[in-house]
Amino acid sequence: MLSLAGCGTVNSTTGSTGTPASPGTNTATGNSSSGSGSSSQPITVRYSEVIRSVFYAPAYVAMSEGFFKQHGLNVQMVTSEGSNTGAAALLSGSADIALVGPETSVYIYNQHGSQTLKVFDQLTNTDGSFILSKNKMNNFTWKDLQGQSIISWRPGSSPQMVLNYDLKKKGVQANVITNIGPSAMVGAFESGKANFIQVYEPVASQLIQSGKAYYDASVGQAIGTYPETAFEATSSYIKSHPQVIQDWTDAIYQATQYIDTHSANQVATAIAPYFTGTPTSLIASSIQRYQKLHAWDGQILTKSAFNTLQQVLIQNGTEKANQKVNYSDVIDPSFAQNVKK
Fold it and tell me: Pfam families of this UniProt entry (predicted)?
């Protein structure tokens, strides 16, 4: 429960521990013609996910069910434990594609550096975190958080900013704790650091099932449509490897279709290798919770959702009103649009 992700662990598309590309293995870096049907060898893509969560089920399905493999991609995955770390991996060239919060693209664009990051495929279209309490709350409302302490995520992270946005919208003032690392959040909650905690699945279901916490509210349901996480790459990588980006986007679309056409138990079985030690039944309940939120209902990050994102950033003080960036500066929807075609 305390280990949200195996930081630095490399996984292959089958979910077992993988190894770096061996000599002669075709890698996406430096090969712009790679992709489905254009090379006899698989293309290795170094992939960084922000944390390990059932919220990102389509990515695990794409690996476990072989959808990436069908498109000629060999995915080597690491868990970065934060959008800032994932973005840094892209900029340093140690990762090709990262699953991060789209706000990172805005931050980096506003720094006017030599590299920019672009969203090419949205994975989740709302926030995937939940508010839990140590004590059972009858008929919980957001007003119950007034004056309370809530263990949240690092300052400037998407879940922390969305929580702040929701609290302000509800007219609630709370003590949002942001200085605890992801792997220590549950321990701090259990030791009495706060009466409330903001967590993702499967941690939410683990805490509820163990009787150590009670479900109160969905942060995503409170904000509605919101681009929580998306696949990004540097602008130069996208320009040099458009087929790899399209193949990735196509594989994720196949994965979302798989989730739509299979039971929660079947999906849970497919992604179980990525959640060692977590009962399949608990993973299935996590899947159902996200399906009710329609978490995976759109790969195109729309202009409307991007406007909401920037409103959240401005309210939280991580972007100035006069620094708002244009949609096309940090979003390239063409690959997701090609899937729809």
Answer: NMT1 (PF09084)
Handedness of CA 127, 133, 136, 137 (dihedral sign): negative
Q: Within this chain, do residues 259 and 302 fall inside the same structural domain, yes or no?
A: yes
Question: What's the predicted TM-score (pTM) here?
Answer: 0.85
The enclosing domain of 65 has a CATH number of 3.40.190.10
What is the distance between the alpha carbons of residues 268 and 259, in angstroms, rounded to a whole number?
10
How is residue 210 annotated by DSSP? H
Rounded CA gap, 311 and 240, in Å? Answer: 32
DSSP element (H, E) containing 215? strand 214-218
What pLDDT, on a 0 to 100 scale, did the predictor assign at position 36? 52
CA distances, 261 to each of 254, 256, 258, 325 (Å): 11, 9, 5, 38
Instruction: Judge whether 125 and 256 are in contact, CB under 8 Å.
Output: no
- Radius of gyration of the chain measured on its C-alpha atoms: 19
With contact defined as beta carbons under 8 Å apart, do 33 and 84 qualify?
Answer: no
- State the alpha helices, DSSP H only, in 100-149: 103-110
The three-class DSSP label of residue 41 is: coil
**Does 104 share its domain with 135?**
no
Domain that holds residue 217: 130-223
Query: Mind listing the pLDDT tens digit for each residue in 243-268?
Result: 999 999 999 999 999 999 999 999 99
DSSP H/E element including 99:
strand 97-100
Q: Both tokens of residue 190?
A: 């259990």
**Do residues 203 and 169 both lie within one domain?**
yes
Q: How many helices (H) and strands (E) does the chain have?
A: 15, 10
Taking 70 as the threshold, does the pLDDT of residue 149 lie above it?
yes
